[in-house]
Amino acid sequence: MKSYTDFKILSLDGGGIKGLYAAKLLAQIEKKTGKLIGEHFDMICGTSTGGLLALGITNYISCETIAQFYIEHGPLIFPRGNWFQRKFRTFSQICLGTKYDNQKLQDALSDLLGKEKTMADANHLICIPSFNITKGRPSIFKKPFGPYHRDGRFTMMQVALATSAAPTFLPAISIEGDQFIDGGIYNNDPSMIGYTEAMDHFIGKNKPLAPRGIHYGRVSMLSIGLPGQPIS
How buried is 21 (Cβ within 10 angstroms: 0-12 exposed, 13-18 middle, 19+ buried)? Predict the structure, then answer.
């Protein structure tokens, strides 16, 4: 008789700089368990800032290190600046389409993830939502598995920039001729994306994509949202 185990999913919502909250929460779990959070899950899903977290976690970067990434680089990626700089960014947002450029974000992601790692290098199954504005449809970046191999050639840095390109704040990202923007346009909470992926390909009898000798019977999920705006 086969013994079934849970297919474990970590789902991380979008929310900009508030990704620091999720990173700190997960860092506390790592401290309590003595294990990196990625050691507990089969699949990681993340939208926008959650996508950055997901890509860091699948590289077995500690969540405390990722939290420091937000603390150190957040003020550089989204600088407050003086009165004139703030007015100029507002003008840029209205007239030129984006409030900030993404060079500081690219530099920070290069330090965190590296420039050469691709989605094929992920240590987990990965689902990262973005939106393809060239074709007018959502796109889910994945680690290749089974017959699915489209995204294996894309770098993690490309995917991170695509899922976090918040409209009017950061510019769209071009990948192989198509323009991509923030995954929150399509799905800010990627939990159902992960659940559907798991049920379609990994849960139940006769699922050939499950690792040899492992039989998944149900989904177990930790879904982390981010704080909303305070109510005055």
Answer: middle
